[in-house]
Amino acid sequence: MAKERDQHSYTRRRQAMVTRHIAQRGITSSVVLNAMGKVPREAFLPPSLREFAYEDSALPINEQQTISQPYIVAYMVDALQLTGGGKLLEVGTGSGYAAAILGEIGDDVVTIERYETLADSAREVLGSLGYDNIEVVHGDGTLGWPAQAPYDGIVVAAGGPEVPESLKQQLAIGGRLVIPISASQTEQALIRVTRVSEHEFREEHLTEVRFVPLVGDAGWEDRHADKRAPVAREVTQRPSREASSMRTSELIAEAADPIDDIDEGNIDRLLERIGDSRVVLIGEASHGTSEFYRFRARITRALIEKKGFDFVAVEADWPDASRIDHYVRHLQTPPAEWTAFARFPTWMWRNEEVRGFVDWLREHNASIHDPEKRVAFYGLDLYSLFTSISAVLDYLDEVDPQAAATARERYGCLTPWQSDPATYGRAAAAGRYRECEDDVVATLVALINKRMEYAQQDGERFMDAVHNARLIANAERYYRSMYSGYSDSWNLRDQHMFDTLDSLLSHGGHGTKAVIWEHNSHIGDASATDMSARGQHNVGQLCREAYGDDAYLIGFGTHSGTVAAASNWDEPMEVKQVRPSLRDSWERLFHDAGMPACTLPLRHPASRELDKRMHESYLERAIGVIYRPETERASHYFKACLAEQFDEYVWIDQTRAVTPLASKTLDGVPDAYPFGL
Ligand code: SAM
């Protein structure tokens, strides 16, 4: 019964899609409209994506490929000008969906796919739907399939550098080949080649499109495809019109700077817009997305190399980040018994993407003679109560054993709660245990009072101890505040992160420049989001208030793909599917703009109209270390005004989970390596 209801609902949505997205956009061929109305697109999708089957968008399938956008499938098949029957060839089977459309029209269809896994699953789905006129071949489609040639129509669903000669030769006279061609991998012109006679071909330019690369003998080389560029999706581009009559996604497409390569792409225009800002805050829409980490590193490397930024401060605990700092600045690492970045969520910092940046920074610093001038790496967060306590005690043991004894006694107030500081917070807030506030504050004050004496011995280590002692004092309050109300503890934590940053900037002196890496929810100005109604502020807002235009806030977003996240706190990491973004969200507007990856200036908008639209309020998605797709709307979306939240927005349409570090990959790295176990 439920199954029948589902079928009925799919059929209804399919008809609506054909009317709204295909017929109303100018496809009139009845053979194409009939075929689009018959093929159940949901059957070609994994169960988790079926509900989006009749939205007009490309969706991710295995092997980082896509099932094509229905409109573009219809557009390409329409361009073959078929009347029904005949022999057809498709290159790029993918899910098998477009092959099924061709199967509804032609007598016989051959479809070729370079990934065996995709070819196998497409064959299975097509078989189960009864398409016995479609042959699925695993192989290089740029060579065509001479065994069945000539073909009345050939459609290529991936973009290549030129029209493969073998495909032209396999056309019947009067037959047509439709293929995306370009000099770059993601932007192409859709070309129609008609075989007029044995030796004569006519070529027409149809429109602009974006497809995944055609990889093969007469396509791009494999190494291009393996480069970790974002997966492109197809979309036709429209000519520009009066701004006020354009949809917001069209305005975005017109104004955004495309990112052509996440790791190495040209970001000169972004750097120009950042200008002389000395605090650049770079966000992420999840803690587990590779592209966010990599593009953030790309921007940071440029800020260090081209604008002389002095340090990177991240949403990690101070003592853990110190390990990285010592490593990248080639300093002696004081021995310690604890493991850095071992606390949940370990993948947030212990991943290949961060490791790549850390190794780059160490190499960059190697050529700077004075250790003080080397680019530093700091942690702003406050979850390291006990490692910070041991760092302060280790320090005092060395410089002032008597002060160490007093501090040990004072910190003893917290010792019973070592394994679970939150329980201390609950007991103290409920009056069942004495508050340790006076003790931890007294230790901090005692340390600061002796700064002349201690700093003379080693200024760097003194500063490290003060940061740890301040962290302990704030963490003690933080754990108590967790039981007095959520916004209190949120504000305390963000205030601590801001204060730590501010003291690092002051310590560095006039003109010190910092890059901050945190989640969007800390970086994007909270006063522009639902957070303000809850009385919450954050690092981005505090930076704007303190530094004005000297702070440049960059947010990130994605439509779908995979993400590394857990289902609950302290549970293992999983690679989860990110659901396609919701209607009424900023993500959906960017997705509809059809750019695989881009940056959109918000502080310096391209037009008044765009600025006006960016000041509207839409949903925005935040994935932290927990991702619960089943309750996504309630758990992960909130309302935000993008133009007030950020100065710049980075969009990466399809994204992948970060790669956590496996300890075996650490073989052979130096002992002091920050992620060493
Ligand atoms: N038509 C597909 C559908 O409806 O799901 C979508 C195709 S997807 C946009 C492009 C496909 O082309 C990918 O699955 C990719 O692996 C495949 N491809 C790329 N180069 C190829 C080649 N030389 N031969 C065969 N398939 C290729």
Entry summary:
With 677 residues, the protein is an alpha/beta fold. The protein is built from 25 helices and 22 strands. The structure holds S-adenosylmethionine.
Question: How would you describe this structure to a colleague?
Answer:
The chain has three domains: about 55-235, Vaccinia Virus protein VP39 (Rossmann fold, 3-Layer(aba) Sandwich), CATH 3.40.50.150; about 250-380 and about 515-660, EreA/ChaN-like  fold; about 380-500. It has 25 helices and 22 strands. Helix 1 (about 1-20) packs antiparallel against helix 2 (about 30-40), helix 14 (about 400-410) runs antiparallel to helix 16 (about 435-450) and helix 15 crosses helix 18 (about 460-480). S-adenosylmethionine binds next to strand 2, helix 4 and strand 4. Keywords: Cytoplasm, Methyltransferase, S-adenosyl-L-methionine, Transferase. Its EC number is 2.1.1.77.
List the helices and strands and how they pair.
Layout: H1 2-22, H2 30-38, E1 59-60, E2 66-67, H3 70-79, E3 87-91, H4 97-105, E4 108-113, H5 116-128, E5 134-138, E6 151-156, H6 165-169, E7 171-181, E8 188-195, E9 201-209, H7 222-226, H8 248-255, E10 257-258, H9 268-274, E11 279-282, H10 290-307, E12 311-317, H11 318-328, H12 352-366, E13 376-381, H13 385-399, H14 401-411, H15 421-429, H16 437-449, H17 451-457, H18 459-481, H19 486-508, E14 514-517, H20 520-523, H21 539-547, E15 551-557, E16 560-565, E17 574-578, H22 586-593, E18 597-601, H23 608-614, E19 617-621, H24 632-636, E20 637-641, H25 642-645, E21 648-652, E22 654-655
Parallel strand pairs: 3-4, 3-6, 4-5, 6-7, 11-14, 11-15, 12-13, 12-14, 15-21, 16-22
Antiparallel strand pairs: 1-2, 7-8, 8-9, 10-18, 16-17, 18-21, 19-20
Helix pairs in contact: 1-2, 2-4, 8-22, 8-23, 10-12, 13-14, 13-18, 14-16, 15-18, 16-18, 17-18, 18-19
The chain binds S-adenosylmethionine.
S-adenosylmethionine binds next to strand 2, helix 4 and strand 4.
Function: Catalyzes the methyl esterification of L-isoaspartyl residues in peptides and proteins that result from spontaneous decomposition of normal L-aspartyl and L-asparaginyl residues. It plays a role in the repair and/or degradation of damaged proteins.
Subcellular location: Cytoplasm
Active site: 68
